[in-house]
Amino acid sequence: MIALGFLISVRINYRICLKKTRFNSFLKIVVSGLVFGSLHEMAINYNWLIYCAMGWILGATYYWTKDLKCSMILHALINLL
User: Fold this and answer.
1) In contact, 63 and 69? CB cutoff 8 Å
2) pLDDT tens, 13-52?
3) Domain count, the chain
4) Would you tell me how many other CB atoms lie within 10 Å of the CB of residue 28?
5) Per-residue pLDDT, 14
6) What is the pLDDT of residue 1?
7) How many CB atoms lie within 10 A of CB 8?
8) Is the dihedral of CA 29, 80, 11, 63 positive or negative?
9) 66 is in which domain, residue-wise?
10) What is the pLDDT of residue 50?
11) For residue 6, how many C-alpha atoms fall within 13 Å in the half-sphere facing its CB?
């Protein structure tokens, strides 16, 4: 069940945030961060907000660099902390 939820959320995140759509960039980053936060923390609490903020940072990194590798490397570095 968790794997199915993960696949659905990744697909939604890809369709809204990575593909060229008519949504503006700020909205894409916000939605991406919310999906990231929801994947890492199911309950809406302080930890969820921290994960959302990390997702917003990763989304902004992708937006500025246009390279998914940079966001992946940053995610790995954050995981090391």
Assistant:
1) no
2) 665 555 565 567 788 888 888 888 888 888 889 999 999 9
3) 1
4) 19
5) 60
6) 47
7) 10
8) positive
9) 2-80
10) 92
11) 5
